[in-house]
């Protein structure tokens, strides 16, 4: 039954008769789009959930004084699952051999299960139900994302990976900013559950369309699988024993990436509560959405030039510059709590994120070896999800310091963000050479 499902899902059999795969033999501009468009939907999903949906939804079930703690614990547990699910799925796809590719079966079924889980955020009647749905969604979506991200090093010529990374960042930027703005308008205290259903329906539609575009239009290169199939346990052992851990430059890269994502995620995750409690705005959802949108504007300015220059002047220098700019944006927030200054800081942080995303992922693809792309990038994304997960540990710290002195917990949050950016930018210089 399993082999039937992954080899010939009825939907794909019908659609592929009318939308045949396009072979990526000579890499063209349209090919950049095909291998990166799914990032639009996945970023739209996580930005909407983490910035707008979860901060509001859990307020229906948890005490006000402990909201940062509950939000931090919820997202920490989900991201810890993602940290394992993504590289394991990637490793299994590396050694899989199915009729319609090594990667696409996992992308298809991971996204289908994610679509079935989305209504759970509206139906949930307790924090425990929200917790369960969110954790299952992390596993299913990252089962798709682990194999999906292998497309870039697997199909893009090395001299074009900076540009491909820029396309990837551009789609993720567009998906994140468009849907966080939609979420801030659609799901508010006034619209309630009705607005949440509209938002979830919109996310589901985009996930479905981009998933079908990916599995129907991307034609994977023939791969040499080491085995017909492998188990999650065997894949996990493969990751632990992988030679990647023996490369000190790759380890420095992972630590640097982890710290950067701790910085970016901390300020994003708790922005809703920060503008609500510190700035004192009337509509924190709209303001948090505007913060993300302005940050995205900063990213948009630099995302393509950064990808281009990373191919010219080097990934390390561009990543270090991103760290300095990110720390500067946090310092601006710390020096003033005014509404206008925080929005300016959002643009500065967005510039940092745009430079980092375009250049650092290109650096990650440089480490990927032939026919082992997914496991390398799955391990690289352990730093991404690990940093995002560890950032949530700031939540209990915010609530603790706020109890000692009103709003002092948010100062603690900002200090930690500065530390993350400065050390993360410095550690990239430990990356000496390609694996």
> How far from one another are the termini?
40 Å
- What structural class is derived from the secondary structure elements? mainly alpha
- The helicity comes to over 70%
Largest sheet: 2 strands, parallel
Oligomerization state = single chain
3D shape: globular
CATH topology: Growth Hormone, Chain: A
Spell the H/E element sequence: HHEHHHHHHHHHEHHHHHHHHH
Hey, roughly how much beta strand do the residues contain? Answer: under 5%
CATH homology superfamily name: MFS general substrate transporter like domains
Taking pLDDT < 50 over at least 5 consecutive residues as the criterion, the unreliable ranges are: 1-25, 223-229
The total beta strand count reads 2
Please give a structural write-up.
With 435 residues, the protein is mainly alpha-helical. It has one domain (27-218, 245-430): Growth Hormone, Chain: A. It is built from 20 helices and 2 strands. The protein has a two-stranded parallel sheet with strand order 1-2. The protein is globular and about 60 Å long. The two termini are 40 Å apart. 54% of the residues are buried. Mean pLDDT is 79; it is low at 1-25 and 223-229.
């Amino acid at each position: 039954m399993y082999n039937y499902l992954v080899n010939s899902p009825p939907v794909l059999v019908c659609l592929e008769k009318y939308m045949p795969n396009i072979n990526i033999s000579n890499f063209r501009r349209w090919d950049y789009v095909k291998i990166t468009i799914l990032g639009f939907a996945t970023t739209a999903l996580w930005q909407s959930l983490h910035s707008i949906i979860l901060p509001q939804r859990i307020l229906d079930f948890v005490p006000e004084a402990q909201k940062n703690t509950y939000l931090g614990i919820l997202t920490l547990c989900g991201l810890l699952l993602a940290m394992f699910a993504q590289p394991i799925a990637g490793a299994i796809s590396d050694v899989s051999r199915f009729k319609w590719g090594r990667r696409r079966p996992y992308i298809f079924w991971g996204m289908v299960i994610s679509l079935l889980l989305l209504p759970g955020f509206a139906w949930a009647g307790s924090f425990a139900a929200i917790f369960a749905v969110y954790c299952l969604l992390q596993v299913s979506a990252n089962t798709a994302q682990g194999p999906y991200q292998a497309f870039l090093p697997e199909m893009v010529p090395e001299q074009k990976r900076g540009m491909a990374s820029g396309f990837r960042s551009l789609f993720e930027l567009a998906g994140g900013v468009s849907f966080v703005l939609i979420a801030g308008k659609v799901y508010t205290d006034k619209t309630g559950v009705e607005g949440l259903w509209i938002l979830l329906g919109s996310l589901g539609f985009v996930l479905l369309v981009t998933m079908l575009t990916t599995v129907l239009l991307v034609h994977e290169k023939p791969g040499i699988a080491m085995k017909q199939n492998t188990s999650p346990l065997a894949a996990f052992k493969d990751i632990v024993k992988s030679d990647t851990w023996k490369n000190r430059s790759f380890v420095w890269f992972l630590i640097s990436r982890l710290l950067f994502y701790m910085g970016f995620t901390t300020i994003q995750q708790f922005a809703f509560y920060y503008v609500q409690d510190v700035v004192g705005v009337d509509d924190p959802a709209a303001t948090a959405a505007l913060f993300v949108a302005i940050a995205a504007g900063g990213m948009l300015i630099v995302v393509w030039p950064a990808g281009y220059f990373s191919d010219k002047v080097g990934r390390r220098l561009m990543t270090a510059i991103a760290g300095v700019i990110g720390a500067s944006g946090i310092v601006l927030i710390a020096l003033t709590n005014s509404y206008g200054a925080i929005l300016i800081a959002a643009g500065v942080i967005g510039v940092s994120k745009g430079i980092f995303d375009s250049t650092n992922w290109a650096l990650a693809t440089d480490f990927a070896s032939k026919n082992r792309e997914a496991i390398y990038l799955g391990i690289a994304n352990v730093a991404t999800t690990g940093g995002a997960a560890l950032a949530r540990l700031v939540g209990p710290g915010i609530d603790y310091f706020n109890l000692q002195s009103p709003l002092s917990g948010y100062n603690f949050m900002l200090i930690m963000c500065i530390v993350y950016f400065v050390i993360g930018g410095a550690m990239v210089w430990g990356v000496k050479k390609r694996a």
